[in-house]
């Protein structure tokens, strides 16, 4: 499960404490070595998210839109309607609804993910 708040993307880590808190890590950890961390009450909403360790990079105002773009791409590449369509065509179809994000995430940078998603429907 991913959490997006104020332009930062977090991954669910583990839950502990009483009352239980979800400990989140920054999604940029692998890519940028960001050690940004946050907590969120287990039954809380993202508005209750508290940053406990700062990020080493600025927030990405397009983070949420990027996530929606990737989600739509994933859905499209596996849809029956797109079966047999080239990955490029699937990408172009979804891009029409997300012109700004598509500019930031060009086909070349995402084509291997598209390929993987199509090959591995459980991912
Ligand atoms: Zn970060």
TrEMBL record:
GO MF term set: zinc ion binding
Keywords for the protein's UniProt record, in alphabetical order: Metal-binding, Zinc, Zinc-finger
FLYWCH-type domain boundaries: 4-57
InterPro entries found in the cross-reference section: Znf_FLYWCH
Protein name: FLYWCH-type domain-containing protein
Species of origin: Acanthoscelides obtectus (Bean weevil)
Taxonomic classification: Eukaryota, Metazoa, Ecdysozoa, Arthropoda, Hexapoda
């Amino acid at each position: 499960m991913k959490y997006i708040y104020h332009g930062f993307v977090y991954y669910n880590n583990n839950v502990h404490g009483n009352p239980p808190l979800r400990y989140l890590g920054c999604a940029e950890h692998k890519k940028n070595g960001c050690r940004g961390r946050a907590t969120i009450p287990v039954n809380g909403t993202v508005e209750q998210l508290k940053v406990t360790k700062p990020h080493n990079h600025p927030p990405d105002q397009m983070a949420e839109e990027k996530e929606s773009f990737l989600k739509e791409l994933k859905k499209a590449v596996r849809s029956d309607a797109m079966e047999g369509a080239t990955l490029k065509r699937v990408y172009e179809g979804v891009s029409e609804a997300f012109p700004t994000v598509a500019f930031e995430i060009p086909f070349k940078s995402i084509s291997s993910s598209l390929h993987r998603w199509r090959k591995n429907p459980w991912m």
